[in-house]
């Protein structure tokens, strides 16, 4: 009966004042912190400072002590670190159980998780177990200081409007956050903080699905999020061959190839290259959009680029509204000229 009462109380809501502190999940793979983990430390730091509370990075893994140190240097006040062979590889059951136990014991008011494949699996599992809400795939976070509420903003209705979502009666307030959107925290060798070892109450029976082997994809993933220069192709290229010109220009500039969804849907290029709402969010120093109209869903992934160059034969194409430099013309005339000009540099 007691268990049911507790469950019911949780469903109705909790005493929000019992919950304090901002947590970010520091996702690591094979002992390397993901960029999104560092972005979340940056964003979490701002939120924690605004709320005058502590920022804790939650780290799970096997013998990744050096990452705990790194998280402190990036700006976490505390690192809550669960170290176990059972946590070496991500499993839904294992990670959910340990983080649920942490939340149950320490009661944070906010928890942010990167919207990676793992984060998208882990976030909903934890939120369901704690009986709280989760806003998936946030692109912006603000704080309503008076009510200590996280204002979680994400694209809705196919990116046609931005919805701001709150979680008034339950804690923690949970969001998954799009990789590449928030600014990374700055590393500072002199920062100090506390590393707390959390002893996980976990045994192999708790993990129902076992990872037998990790098989890596043959082709290296395109590192769009990291790229300083991106040359992207759109439907204006007309066919898959058009991407040869995009590749040539990218190579000349020392950049990588991006694409609009129209070209991915047409099968001209793999999904790993897609920029936009359902692709990658990028913020390179230079983004060259070739034959891309500038649909809102594409802009959502690239409009924070430092310098945007657009090549389009339609002078009224919406991409010109966000472009710093616009070239009105046919990609098949402009691109070869640009490539040739770069040959002579
Ligand atoms: P088009 O819109 O067809 O534009 C082609 C452009 O090329 C035109 O402006 C045209 O003037 C120009 N052009 C044609 N020929 C030439 C030439 N020879 N030289 C120069 N210019 C030329 N889109 C994304 O990109 N990323 C996403 O992540 C994404 N997610 C989406 C999610 C949802 C839920 C929905 C509904 C849509 C999404 N879209 C996304 C699709 C988006 O709405 C657009 O359909 C898509 O971005 C259009 O791609 P495009 O600009 O290449 O093609």
UniProtKB/TrEMBL annotation:
PROSITE patterns in UniProt: 4FE4S_FER_1, 4FE4S_FER_2, ETF_ALPHA
Pfam families: ETF, ETF_alpha, Fer4_7
Claim: Electron transport is one of the keywords in the record: yes
Assigned keywords, A-Z: Electron transport, Iron, Iron-sulfur, Metal-binding, Transport
CDD domains, A to Z: ETF_alpha
Keyword field contains Cytoplasm: no
Protein name per UniProt: Electron transfer flavoprotein subunit alpha
Organism: Tissierella simiarum
């Amino acid at each position: 009966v007691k268990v049911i009462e507790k469950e019911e109380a949780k469903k109705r809501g909790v005493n929000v004042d019992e919950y304090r502190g901002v947590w970010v999940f520091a996702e690591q793979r094979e002992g390397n912190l993901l960029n999104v983990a560092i972005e979340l430390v940056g964003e979490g730091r701002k939120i924690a400072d605004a709320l005058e509370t502590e920022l804790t990075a939650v780290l799970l893994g096997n013998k990744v002590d050096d990452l705990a140190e790194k998280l402190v240097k990036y700006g976490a006040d505390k690192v809550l670190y669960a170290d176990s062979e059972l946590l070496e590889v991500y499993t839904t059951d294992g990670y959910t159980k340990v983080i649920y136990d942490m939340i149950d014991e320490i009661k944070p008011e906010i928890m942010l998780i990167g919207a990676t494949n793992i984060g998208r699996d882990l976030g909903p599992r934890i939120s369901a177990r704690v009986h709280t809400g989760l806003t998936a795939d946030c692109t912006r976070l603000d704080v309503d200081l008076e009510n200590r509420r996280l204002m979680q903003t994400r694209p809705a209705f196919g990116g046609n409007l931005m919805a701001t979502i709150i979680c008034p009666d339950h804690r923690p307030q949970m969001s998954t956050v799009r990789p590449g959107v928030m600014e990374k925290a700055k590393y500072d060798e002199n920062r100090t903080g506390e590393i707390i070892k959390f002893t996980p109450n976990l045994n192999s029976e708790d993990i129902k699905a076992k990872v037998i082997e990790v098989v890596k994809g043959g082709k290296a993933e395109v590192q769009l999020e990291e790229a300083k220069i991106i040359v992207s192709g759109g439907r204006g290229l007309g066919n898959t061959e058009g991407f040869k010109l995009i590749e040539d220009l990218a190579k000349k500039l020392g950049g990588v190839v991006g694409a609009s969804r129209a070209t991915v849907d047409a099968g001209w290029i793999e999904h790993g290259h897609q920029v936009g709402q359902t692709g990658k969010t990028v913020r390179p120093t230079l983004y060259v959009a070739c034959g891309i109209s500038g649909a809102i869903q594409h802009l959502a992934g690239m409009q924070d680029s430092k310098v945007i160059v657009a090549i389009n034969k339609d002078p009224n194409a919406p991409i010109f509204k966000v472009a710093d430099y616009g070239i009105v013309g046919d990609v098949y005339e402009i691109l070869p000229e640009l490539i040739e000009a770069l040959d002579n540099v």
